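User: Some background: our group keeps a shared notebook of sequences we're curious about, and every so often someone picks one and asks for a predicted structure to add to the entry. Today it's my turn. The entry only has the sequence so far, pasted here. Could you supply the structure so I can complete it?
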Amino acid sequence: MECFLRSCQFVLKGAPKSSPGLHVVLGNEACDLDSMVSSLTFAYFLSKVSGSEKTPIPVLNIPRAEFPLRTDSGFLLRECGLTQDALVFRDEVDLHHLHRAGKLALTLVDHNALPSTDCDLEGAVVEVIDHHQLERMPSPSCLVTVETVGSCATLVTERIMQKAPEVLDQQVAQLLYGTIITDCVNMAPEAGKVTPKDSKYAVLLESRFPDLPPRGALFQSLQNAKFDISGLSTEQMLMKDLKVASGEGLKLAVCIIYMTLEAFLQRRALQRELCEFCDRHGYSLVITMMVSINEKKELFRQLAVYSSSTIYREEMSRALEKAHSPCLNLSPMCSPCAEVKAYLQGNALASRKEMMPVIRDCLKDWGRRSVHCSNPEDLGELEEQFGSSCGPVTDDESRARPGTASRRYRLFAEESGMEEDSLVPPTPMNSLVEGCPLDRGLPRVSAEAVLERFREVTDEARTEDRPPRGQ
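Assistant: Of course. Here's the predicted structure to add to the notebook entry:
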């Protein structure tokens, strides 16, 4: 495996110029253990059996600098005798350039739909192997294997054993085995993750490779590594296991953190850090699922919903509270942060994977209703739903609700300790200019468009200043 990964880096350097192209095996944006191992092992399998001229290469779907946050992935690599240096990361290969040059084939593992930022790569997708809910439209050019097992690594193991069992060696088997038992919570039925197929292939790996580490010991070591967040900043905690949901002009971060919500909410300056995190990465909301083990050694989950926009925060919270497929069984918890809604999740079996469709449905519904409510006369419907008094006005709300820009300006003046008359309120034109503090996710406006609008305003002003005829 190490030699294969090293050869991938060598090919990558010459791929844009001399090679026929790359067959990239790409995991999801969270780049968790399942995504990483499924990408590595399936690309290795393709390198042994594929007759394509394009070179199979596993690409981890995060920048290299973020990999140290995947502590369980790093641990398993070391246990299997592999190093981070041999891996290829998303910031080291330009997939869009390769696709435009006609040199890219793409296999998706551990997800079946590309995010909006990669939607133009859709034409390169030739295969999907995944265990999440199917979201993509069928296509004759794309082979789709989607089955709701506990781990995508189970489906990769199945493919290898059915098509080329000789590809499996101790190293590849340990990567797959460690991932399956981690995703399936040590194969415990009470955790609700393991399926008969997961159990079948875990047992087959154990029987074929008797020198694999004992199941319980390996699972505990990986859990200890996963839960190790000592010394991480709030942003690093959020980035450690993050997936993105987007639609209708909004982008959300959906994160998993392995600690209690009570401890997370007590972090110093948490609300400010969440606000800075959203500003830095362009998120409208952050939904965090906290995963912990109680004194009875039982897994339990809690949820936190953050947004500086009251409307976005209440809309998403209501959708999660009312979710029925699955029912999260949320109970409100006390939150010391005004912009964070906190919940105990009664249904501990509902993971982020099951929650993501609820979030995406909410985004679609929000998009439909925001279009409907773009007319100021229709905003009464939103105010009835969320209350006319929505607390401090945020940038998002000032765009959604009429008459709030001046209120937000007054709040800024008060908070900055400056007299209101000493500041010039930002004009709508300036709020659309690149880099303006008021611009949080609005579509970019070109310089030509701004100048054109300036000319129109100037012409209107000249017309208004011109004295009537006869005077």
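Suggested note for the entry: Residues 449 and 455 are 10 Å apart (CA to CA). The first strand starts at residue 22 and ends at 26.
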